[in-house]
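Researcher: Next entry in the queue.
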Amino acid sequence: MEISDPLDSVRISPQAPSQSDIDEYRRLSAEQAAGVGIVSTVWRGRDYAATVSAYLSVSYDPPTLLVSLYEGSRIAQAVASSGQWALTLLTADQQREANWLASPGTPLEGLLSQVPFRRGPATGNAVIEGGLAYFEVATTAVHEAATHLLVVGNVVGMGSGVPWHPGLGPLLHYAGDYRKIKP
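Model: Structure for this entry, 183 residues:
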């Protein structure tokens, strides 16, 4: 059965969206809850890390991940150039870490000084302590998509940062804010 309601529908031009089209897309796409993670890498001897909510498990065989990074960001340049990265999935209690690494203008020197982390055994990239899970990834492809880079890679190491317990849950991004799953 087809349902049509022109009041709920907006047609846009992908080649030249208006600012109101972009704002409406942002509002509507925020209606999807997404897990929050930290992507990190080491490039030219320096740590880079940023909060992300656009990542995807692409395949289980072989284990493959994808992360979407704003092309003009330091983290996108570092991840694309280094050839390897780590993704730590955050718990609901790690909003402070997510906020710090999502803040524009965070310093390059001492970026991770406020975030407890350890080095991943496979890549040496920062793995955030206490995360639900972490994945160390070797990049296999980088694709340009509009204003972002889609970085795809094979998982070369993984683990968990905390033992599971009934109150443990992921940090989510929904409707422009961080959320928790209610037990």
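Model: The CA atoms of residues 117 and 129 lie 5 Å apart.
Researcher: Noted, moving on.
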